[in-house]
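>> received
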Amino acid sequence: MRLVPTKKEKRVVLVCRKCKYERAAQKAETSSRKIDHSPEEQIAVVGAKEQELRTLPTIKMECEKCRNTEAYWWLVQTRGADESPTTFYRCVKCGYTWRDYS
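>> returned
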């Protein structure tokens, strides 16, 4: 478990959120930094490049918007690792995207 820096009586202590264990923090342990990522570094579910290449597998699935019967599909682990992944579908014809949580 990670110890969280907490101010206590004009000093910083490290506290476990679960068992409430605490100890005095060393100067090096209390420093933190924020990392900002550019939009290019952030993860895209399916980017324009993949969509142009049409490398995704297809399935016979009716589009809710245009009633086309073919869609691309891919899986993304959107929730905890112990839960099933979310299936995304994108219509081959109109590009409408929807998901299935089963």
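>> The mean pLDDT is 80.
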